Amino acid sequence: MYHRILVAHDGSDAAEGAFRLAKHVVARTGARLVVAHVVNELADDGGGSTDPRLQPVLDERTQRWEERLDGLPDPADGPEIERRVLAGPVADTLLDLAAEIDADLVVAGTHGVGSLRQVLFGSVSQRLLERAPCDVLFVRRALALDGSPPAVLVGFDGSDDARRALAAGENLADALGGSLVLAHVAAFEAPFSDSGFLGEDTRQQIRKQLHDHGHELLQQARSSVSLADERVVEERLEGHAREELLAACAKHAPAIAVVGTRGARGFAGLLVGSVTRDLLDYSAAPVLVVRGSSTGD
Question: Which residue, 32, 56, 257, 284, shows the most beta carbons closer than 10 Å to its own?
Answer without folding.
Answer: 257
